Amino acid sequence: MTEVKTFNLANNISENETNKENIIKDDSLSVDRVSHHQILSYENRDKVIEVRDLNLHFDTYAGEVKAIRGVSFDIYDGEVLALVGESGCGKSVTSLSIMQLVQSPQGQVVGGQIRFNSDDLGEDENGNKLAYDIAKMPTKQMYNVRGKDITMIFQEPMTSLNPIFTIGNQMDEVMFIHYPDGGMRQRVMIAMALSGNPKLIIADEPTTALDVTIQAQILDLLKSIQKKTGCAIMLITHDLGVIAEMADEVVVMYAGRVIEKGTVREIFYTPKHPYTIGLQKSKPLITSDANEPLYSIPGQVPNPINMPDYCFFKDRCNRCTKACDGHYPTVSNVSPTHLVYCHLYDNQNKGGNDEK
Question: Has this prediction a pTM greater than 0.85?
Fold first, then answer.
């Protein structure tokens, strides 16, 4: 009779610490082997990663697609940061940029920095920690970060495993049945992501195509793991219910740009950008009138090859002012933790509320 090994993720995290110590480290990531252009000072030790003014373009037959435009955010130790927005807004491309998995040469990071707080580089002469700039790291050196310090739970677990091999062959720590269901496959993907005891887990739509009961189990598993390991999680989703359950901070994206950032309470209880408000209105509630159609944001996302100079949401917005005919809005600080890119909040909307 074949012996079947069982595996409990939450109770076996400590084994990963031992396994990690036994990994033979490639010295290609030592300070002496890495270009000074790839190493930056990192003043805040509590941050796992800093994304600063990230720009990524794709070359296509139809023209250049500017998929990410000036995206910036931070992820702290033990924090869950949610990236939210409709399909095509740049959520997954942003995560693939951090993992350096964007298909090249079609896709290229053309500007900005992705500063990763590594424990391998030590400190500079001023006592600040040194960080890698992932945007400039050669692929060979990225192999030592990807899968060990930064891991990813991909969007579709049904296609993330090779059906030719058993899971036992694909993951040393666990052996399941050869053809598991979606929920079991997603657990395997989580286990594989945790096998190196990473500092940052990127979870790209981790509950897609799972029923509600299994979704709840997967979210509970992620929360349990985070509490035990203290890792940070970057959660990519369009499900506002998942965000309310999991996130500490929320970044709202639209057409490749960040349009609003804040704590989960600020985004849910005091959203400012008309797009964020529209997203919340489009979510069905148990108190909704079944006879009323579900709200949808009117219009379409602009053509990514020929984006306008003004606010990308202007042609779909029901709160436009005269200022919206001008340049793209700059950032407004609603509070120390709440930022929004909207002309409605330019110096307390100095031009007035003359809506069209």
Answer: no
Identity at 30, one-letter amino acid code: S
- 83 dihedral zone (left: phi>0; alpha: psi -120 to 50; beta): beta
What values do phi and psi take at 113, rounded to 5? -135, 150
pLDDT at 103: 87
**How far is residue 72's CA from residue 112's CA, in Å, rounded to a whole number?**
9
CA–CA distance, 85 with 254 (Å, rounded to integer): 6
The C-alpha atoms of residue 73 and residue 250 are separated, in whole angstroms, by 10
Q: b vs e for 196-208, b when ≥16 Cβ sit within 10 Å of the residue's Cβ? A: bbbbbbbbbbbbb
Cross-strand partners of 150: 146, 200
Angle at 220 between CA 192 and CA 88, to 5 degrees: 70
E strand or H helix at 227: helix 212-229
Q: What pLDDT, on the 0 to 100 scale, is given for residue 23? A: 36
CA distances from 329 to 55, 159, 203, 251, 257 (A): 18, 40, 30, 17, 11
Q: Annotate 8-18 with b (16+ C-beta within 10 A) or e (fewer).
A: ebeeebeebee
Instruction: Pinpoint the alpha helices (H) of 238-302.
Output: 240-246, 264-269, 274-281
Contacts of 213 (CB under 8 A, 6+ apart): none
For the chain, give the number of residues: 356
Alpha-carbon gap, residue 58 to 339, rounded angstroms = 28
Strands 39-42 and 129-133: antiparallel
Q: Extract the residue ranges of the chain whose pLDDT is less than 50.
A: 1-33, 172-175, 177-179, 349-356
Torsion of CA 297, 302, 308, 310, to 10 degrees: 10
User: What's the angle, vertex CA 120, arms to CA 73 and CA 15, rounded to 5?
Assistant: 95
**DSSP secondary structure letters along 29-57:** GSGGGS-GGGEEEE--TTEEEEEEEEEEE
